[in-house]
Amino acid sequence: MARLNVNPTRMELKRLKARLTTARRGHKLLKDKRDELMKQFLDIVRVNKELREEVESALQKAYKSFTIAAAVMSPEFLEQSLMYPKQSVSVDISYRNIMSVNVPEYTFQTKSSDFSEIFPYSYAQTSGELDDAVLELSKIMEKLMELARVEKSVLLLAREIEKTRRRVNALEYIMIPQLDETIRYITMKLDENERGNLTRLMKVKDMMLKQAHNYE
User: Fold this and answer.
1) Contact 41/157 with Cβ under 8 angstroms?
2) Where are the domains of the chain?
């Protein structure tokens, strides 16, 4: 592992030790965050799977009824029947924080909760299969909104997990080893300097003792 390009001084050693302590603390916190994000992610993925299966089943049923209605009604009359919708929908968006990730929350509201008021056409001139398709789509709308919310949450959490994973790996495999290697290098250099200074002091002491002996 390549070390950092720094001067081998005691001040630099103290600074790098402080950075290493901070890096290790940050590494632990980020690992804990990654693990909790993974737990939340897996919980939401399970909910997403159940919702998607439920929505796809309901949509398949609605499409089947619509296909039959399209077969027994003329395309022009079918289009005319659905041209002016009677029901209206409003959606309010708020956000919930999951481990520093803001995931959306949708509040779904229709103009009327009475399913008998959702058909924009006369019953006498349309097929019963079209009624079934419109009714099924109206019932599944809320779950479609919930599925959209859950899938958006899954996407946002996946991005945050990937970003956190990269940071954990950068600390674990690059920064912390570099700091360790640099601290060892500086410590070795300081020890060498200390031994060199001690050797010079011993030589100076021997020279002074010899001079003092010669004066006697």
Assistant:
1) yes
2) 10-210
Q: How far apart are CA 72 and CA 130, in angstroms?
A: 10
- Measured CA to CA, the distance from residue 141 to residue 130 in angstroms comes to 17
Q: pLDDT (tens digit, 9 = 90+) per residue, 81-111?
A: 677 676 677 788 889 898 888 998 888 777 6
CA distance linking residue 150 with residue 144, whole number of Å: 10
Tokens of 187: 């410590």
Task: Report the alpha-carbon distance of residue 123 to residue 133 in Å, rounded.
Answer: 13
Residue with tokens 């949708």: 106
Residue 84 in tokens: 């002016």
Note the CATH architecture for domain 10-210: Orthogonal Bundle (1.10)
Helix count (H) and strand count (E) of the chain?
4, 2
pTM: 0.74
How far apart, in whole angstroms, are the C-alpha atoms of residue 216 and residue 157? 86
